[in-house]
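Question (not urgent): is this output format expected?
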Amino acid sequence: MKHTTTIAVALLSCALFVACKNDEPPVVNATEEIGEETYAGGLLGTTFNQSASAYEDPTPAVEQAGMVNAFKYGEMFFEHTMTQNNAPFNGLGPLYIRSSCESCHPGYGHGRRMERYRADDWGNGYLLVVYNKDAAGDPYETSLAGMPQTKAVAPFKPSIDETKIQISWLDYTDEWGNRFEDGETYSLIYPEVNIPEDAFYAPLVTPYASLGFRLETTIGIYGTGLLDAIPDDSLKAQYQKEYDAGANLNPAIWNGSDWASTYGNTNHPKRFTYALSRGPLQDAAGANAIWNITNVTRVDRRYHYLSLTKSIYANAAANDPEVQADFYRYFPQWEKTGDPATDIYNYLMCDTLPIEMSSEDYVNFMVWHRGLAVPAARNLNDATVQRGRKLFREIGCAACHRPSWTTGKDNYTDPNRFFTDGDARLPRYPYQKIWPYSDMVQHRLNMVNDIRTGWCRTTPLWGRGLAQVCSGHSDRLHDCRARNTMEAIMWHGCQGSDARQSVENFRALSKADRDAIVKFIDAI
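Got this back:
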């Protein structure tokens, strides 16, 4: 992997180091907003690399803090295949979703659209969503984990037999016949997922007929440290602004004047994942995935990720004769009572398991995770891109895809208390103007076979124009149904979509103006 640091950033490093140490806003020399916007991740978070490794670079903040070696060590845990007993990459299983993080995030980006569900297929970022479609709130099926495991280390068996999962891609024709008034056409597709009842290992809690199946792909992980640095009160102000403007917000998140719920037992608002299921980055995205995707234990998580009702899978495995027959051969170190069923159950339910990922390795992993830079916006001075930028705002896209935010002191927190507030071991991004193009709020697009609950956080657009170069695909939206930017825009236009008016405005533009908007989105 190669990292690129530009001369422009290097010349600024001394001044920025002083600003960062004093927790004061760095001075932006750009006199025009469009020049400022080139630094999509701010002066402390932007890389000017535009090659296939653009998503992989450390931020200037990492370099200035002397954390490059830690960043590189942490990167190994993202890229390396985890195993059952090969230190320091040991800990895979007994159940798992993927054996490496990068297999879900090809080129460090968004997962790609797949024709079938196989965990080992490169670029398959899909996480299965299995839920009770007939219950209020579409709750997850509790005999499975929130992200069901389809792989297992022998003698254990996966929660779902992935060979029986079927993905069908169906054509969709919208109310406009997939055609603009000037004759230009586009195509739309969406996934249908089917999992037969006999694919499930443990007994279901929800009646099979009430189960719904969806796909959610992984997000691009670059720049998540910068999103974490957005102040909580700034997020709250955004929700209030949109509510006061008449936006229909998820009542499970916002009650009209305050948070209806916050993250876990903290007062932090939820800001990560499509479902807004996570709060601070130190207990979200990669911090969570390095544990539950590969089931690698660490000092603050010495237990397995099995199912929402953990005992359901544990009981099924403990009473499986084939698991009993080979358990001691694969886990000879486990204390024996003489009763395989008891020992298997105790092993799966244990919350004091040996630590597989050392604290030092976890710190390095989080330096890497919090330290990934955002690619600079490209060609903003191009006349067509400027036209698209202006139209993007005029037709209403910026109402949800809010262009910029300003970070705060970035004295980040960790709900797990592994890191102390503002821990000096991780990079920080105080007082940066960043350009993610997301309001960090959930909205509804009302698509056929929509996301579970129908509410989806606005995806940041920064850097996505480099997806083809970095990740080998241009798939967009939560399940990769959009194969390019134009399809993603048109999926926003369904009846009842919160973005309906913007799409109607988009349809009224000339082809040249529509193309300009697409070119702008791909430039940021």
